[in-house]
User: Which sequence fits this backbone?
């Protein structure tokens, strides 16, 4: 039998704090406690989790999310969920988080809703809102089995300081590591957190050559923006690191200003930027879907438009 509690987990503490903000709202409605799973050394992290609303903290020192693979992490999380029997389990929808959530749901023979935008309570049932059909539609889905395992898109909720009780429980158990490392391939990373950027310039297949990235990079620099891209630029052409990819299988961003340069606007990309406050589209094709997502459109050749915009912005900044 499940309790009415809400339990959260993420291998990134910052994302766990965001989940705690949502968990606190839900647990208050359920009249129960909010819990968090900490893998590795608790240390100073326990106090921080408590400050962000955790009433109960379950520390598993045997597994370290910074060193162990998803198999060990998933087993540890599943063990804690089985032991505590919460009503809802919230997991950040990172690559690791989505794998962990699927494992936990399967091991408990319960339902799993991935990459959700919101969670609400309808009488005694848990309802989620999430994108379906490649991000083209929103669906509301109700759980029929519990605990409800839910992954939440990063940065959907703002972390808040709402001090919890901070009751600590250290759990010890043997973890079977079923995966072994057979090789290692370094993935090129830019080291930039696009999801935190206030201004983003994204480039698509309207760019003809890799060398032409200099044109977009200069524009982004004078604008004070981070550079992102569509899937073909990073995945197929390898012109930019994979962590610059914005879209359904990449980063989700919500900057104050988003400038799409030579981006057609397929739904797989739009899903990753649709929460942007102001969108500008630069594209030669007046029928490009990206124009429908834009607040302002410039129908023109990026090779002619960007140098002019860069020059104008430079002059404005010189006068300030």
Assistant:
């Amino acid at each position: 039998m499940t309790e009415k509690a809400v339990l959260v987990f993420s291998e990134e503490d910052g994302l766990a704090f965001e989940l705690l903000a949502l968990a606190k709202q839900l647990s208050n409605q359920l009249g129960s406690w909010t819990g968090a799973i900490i893998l590795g050394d608790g240390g100073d992290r326990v106090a921080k989790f408590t400050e962000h609303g955790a009433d109960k903290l379950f520390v598993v020192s045997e597994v370290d999310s910074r060193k162990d693979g998803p198999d060990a992490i998933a087993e540890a999380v599943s063990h804690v969920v089985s032991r505590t029997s919460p009503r809802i389990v919230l997991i950040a929808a990172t690559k690791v988080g989505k794998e962990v959530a699927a494992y936990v749901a399967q091991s408990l023979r319960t339902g799993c809703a991935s990459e959700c935008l919101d969670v609400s309570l309808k009488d005694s049932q848990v309802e989620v809102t999430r994108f379906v059909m490649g991000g083209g539609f929103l669906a509301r889905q109700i759980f029929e089995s519990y605990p409800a395992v839910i992954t939440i898109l990063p940065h959907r909720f703002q972390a808040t300081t709402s001090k919890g009780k901070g009751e600590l429980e250290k759990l010890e158990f043997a973890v079977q590591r079923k995966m072994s490392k057979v090789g290692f391939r370094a993935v090129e990373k830019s080291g930039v957190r696009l999801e935190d950027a206030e201004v983003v310039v994204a480039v698509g297949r309207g760019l003809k050559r890799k060398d032409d990235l200099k044109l977009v990079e200069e524009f982004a620099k004078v604008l004070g923006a981070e550079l992102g891209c569509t899937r073909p630029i990073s995945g197929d052409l390898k012109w930019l690191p994979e962590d610059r990819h914005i879209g359904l299988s990449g980063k989700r961003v919500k900057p104050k200003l988003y400038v799409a340069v030579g981006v057609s606007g397929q739904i797989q990309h739009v899903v990753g930027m649709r929460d942007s406050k102001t969108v500008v589209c630069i594209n030669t094709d007046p029928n490009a879907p990206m124009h429908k997502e834009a607040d302002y459109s410039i129908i023109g050749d990026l090779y002619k438009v960007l140098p002019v915009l860069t020059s104008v912005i430079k002059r404005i900044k010189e006068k300030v």
